[in-house]
């Protein structure tokens, strides 16, 4: 019986044994394990990510453990999320192959995905935005990704039978949906254990949010749409930390929150993150790049604003 017939969290050593037992992975390395490099890079909140490479090839292994990584075992979270992430990556990859890393291997028992390594100079978009880099193709690429994944999984394109079958399948991702309901639509508006803000500077602002009943009514409306509207297969966590970029390439990763929900949740998350990036620019300015062109509304160089306009069909 294989060593991996039941769930086992992997480390940099045991991962090599695992790869040797999986032809779809070891063949990527031409079965050559002498010059292998394995590095755990997970800077994400939830899972472990290993980069595996040798002179012949490379891939990424992402494994879900049965808890939230950045909090620890005190916050249990189903490792079945890896199953929904792999399903979503495959579906999105079919619909938008230029903007989603290819899945090479999935193991449900081990909650583990093997996928294309997005090699340097790919970096997380949020880091690029903070560094003040401009990405001229980003709006085109992200609108392609969203249009293709959202339209082609909605009833604008699919039959009722296909749609209901997929809605039912992704209903299984209930724990991750519940997490979003809590941390996006409930916690920020009340006193809650995992809320964090810069204190004391923003104490007043946080309090103002908690006491704004009209805002809470609006958010309750949005929460109800999020829970009830099975419109299309949404990514579910489409912030700038879920996109890897170079100037030429845009790749959407990390769809473990995917389910059938309102399209606006993805579109709004991405636009909202761009707006945050825009307003944080002056805080990130340094001598080398004073970001003046980003602070003042000078149309030609205000690329983040331009992109928001492009994505919002204002242009
Ligand atoms: P989590 O679900 O824990 O948030 P992510 O999927 O966001 O995990 O991955 C965490 C980090 O690992 C990313 O921020 C990125 O730096 C790196 N990473 C993830 N997938 C890849 C990939 N396919 N290629 C290169 N780096 C990746
Ligand atoms: Mg992530």
From TrEMBL:
Keywords: ATP-binding, Kinase, Nucleotide-binding, Transferase. InterPro entries: Aminoglycoside_PTrfase, Kinase-like_dom_sf, Methylthioribose_kinase. Pfam families: APH. Coiled coil: none annotated. It is an enzyme of class 2 (transferase). Its EC number is 2.7.1.100. GO terms for biological process: methionine biosynthetic process. One of its GO terms (molecular function) is ATP binding. Residues 38-277 form the Aminoglycoside phosphotransferase domain. Belongs to the methylthioribose kinase family. Homodimer. This is S-methyl-5-thioribose kinase. The gene is 25485383.
